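Q: Structure tokens for this one, please.
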Amino acid sequence: MRLAVLCLSLLPGLALAETTPMHHGVVFFCPQEPAEAVKELERIKADGFDLLKFASWAWTLPKPGSPVEARAQAVLDWCDRNGMAFVLLHNVQYGSKGEGGGLEDQALHPEQALPLVTDWARVLAGHPSVLGVILGNEVGPAVGSPEKTPRWWSGFQGWLHAKYGDVATLNAAWGTDFASFQEVRDPAQAQTAVDLRSYAGERFAQFYGYLFDHAFRPVLGEKLYGAKTSLDPFLQRACGAFTMTCWDDVVSEYPPWRLKLAADTVHKPVFNSELHLYHDNYAFRPSVERSRYRYFLSAILGEYLTASFAWGQWQKPAISTVHAATPGILRDLRRLEPQLRQFHEADEQADLRVLVTRAGYYGPWETEQRDHPLAVLCARMSCLGKPWRYLVEDELATLSEGTLVCGPEPLSQPTAQALASLPDRVRLLFTGSLPTSDDYGRPLPDPLLKSLAARATVTTPENPLQTIGVAPGLPEAYQRTGDVPYLQWDQQRGHFDTPETICLLEARRVTTADRTLVCVINHTREPQTAPLPWAKGTLRDLTSGATLTPGQMASMTFSPLAINLYECDR
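A: Here is the predicted structure, written as tokens:
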């Protein structure tokens, strides 16, 4: 038997792990001349990238005989010959009339946006390099306002009428006193939020779904289709025409729990189509260690597709030095891909799960990373040394055994009833307290509360480890949570640090027929010292070829954001 130990400084995806290809590429703003574009493609390939995300806008359509068509065909032909995966990013922006997605126009009648995409479908046809199409850049389900988008809001009022039947039923659900559905006009009203979010998500999904189903699928067949939006699992799941979870991290220090949540629950290939590591003009805290950290992060969590932002914008000496390490990082990543995938596969098969509800995901804490209950639960679950995964409330019927951990956030009545009715072989744990209200703020019925109380065990909110139990042989050094500063940005404050609660030094283990893989993750910017968990015999570093003795394994120092891979016969 061999023991392979993977020691990674990473942030913390599905049967899809076996079928999703691994491609790491760049965001590509194509030069005007086809010959110059091909020269750039050669440089991209030489740097070890094998995916090209080709940027396009509503005003750069490849009309027959146009210069745009000529350079697009030159790029596609080169990608076909050189094994480079091609993904089109076409900026058809939901919520923007001038970019093809006005809430009063194309969003209600998506056929009006077809002229913006049909030329691209024609140009992409017949090219084997085409991996997928992204429509929309950093878009989301905008809601407008009754004053500026009255037709969109009239649609929402009609949707409410269809759902509730009469205004009295709506008032009972919301705790309001509207005289008619037409009085629902305040997007900021708390009672409106649950249904407004659902309707907006449906309109968003229908708009892009129509374009994929009527322009691209008839010509290209099944590819990876999606819009570059957030990792919101409920929005991504609502977009039935999407075949990938496409997103943009905005910053280099992205909270790990959000990526894990999407990879665990959406059940589609995850593509960070704008990976931010280093840039000439933006402060992403670039370093070689952070680049390695982020690329290996993707594979550990089940994300196998990235496009780094942005080719040609890595020229300054300090940035160029960091970028020069990327080819070696990608070589290591591809060499270790089979081992890295096994950690996500273990999570997908885990019988230890954390419940994700709509009321628990959205809420007053949504803008405060540190306080989000799902982030805190991720930190604490990561201290167990066991595989685990998030589970959305829509999939409760799939549970037949195992442990389900829930927070104290409100529960919809159907979800509360599903929890109370889980089979006896499912252990139900609540951290802190049992929920007492539903997603509209109404008290849950007393009989349902009693059923939940009889069915569940309530643990302390700070530490469910004692109730669940850590993996045998896991040293205490791997059972600590703490706050790590993460670099954020917004228009008002610019760059600023915000504390993220995280498992400081995490250990993961996967046992196969002939070996055991162990992943040690230093989530901090400081060296961490601890004994190597679950290690036996003599270890060989698969990256450097060095050998470690049992004495060395008794006290290991894991440097900030460092990555080490070991193997051992036993």
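A few notes: The chain has a mean pLDDT of 91. Residues 157 and 183 are 9 Å apart (CA to CA).
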